[in-house]
Design brief:
globular
């Protein structure tokens, strides 16, 4: 079952269980999926890879919003954002541990022949494709910098 179909099924379950936060979060995900599906670049087909990118983006946005709300003393709004993150995160594949990530990045550095921070873009391009859904961009960036000795 594709992620698109899974989200649709889980929306029905959330409605029946009257889980309002989860329902709202999943409806937001489905809205993004539908927008992506109807865009010119997808041609009516939404791959699971593209769906994972959308989910990662939504989680990142909510975490950033929660941080801003915390800074402004709005714990109630931050809590709601983090509850939506908790509802969406299970759709991502298991995240890599720091050790696994470091090993994959080290291998990519060797494959690409990168030697300094100037080659970071080359390694990041490879890493983001290979690690899509398994680690977020900020974590990958930190691992690449560390592997390149920065």
């Amino acid at each position: 079952m594709s992620l698109f179909d899974q989200i649709g099924e889980d929306i029905k379950k959330a409605m029946l269980a009257k889980e309002t936060v989860k329902l709202e979060a999943l409806r937001g995900v489905k809205k993004e999926f539908l927008e992506a599906k109807t865009s010119k670049e997808c041609n009516g087909e939404l791959t699971d890879e593209k769906a994972l990118q959308i989910i990662q983006k939504m989680i990142k946005q909510r975490k950033e919003s929660a941080a801003v709300y915390q800074e402004q003393g709005r714990a109630d709004l931050a809590e709601r954002e983090l509850a939506e993150v908790a509802a969406i995160e299970p759709y991502l594949p298991a995240q890599m541990s720091a050790e696994e990530l470091a090993a994959v990045v080290a291998e990519l550095v060797r494959e690409s022949g990168a030697t300094s921070i100037k080659d970071m873009g080359k390694v990041m391009g490879l890493a983001t494709k290979k690690l899509a859904g398994k680690a977020d961009g900020k974590t990958i960036s930190e691992a690449v910098k560390k592997a390149l000795g920065c």
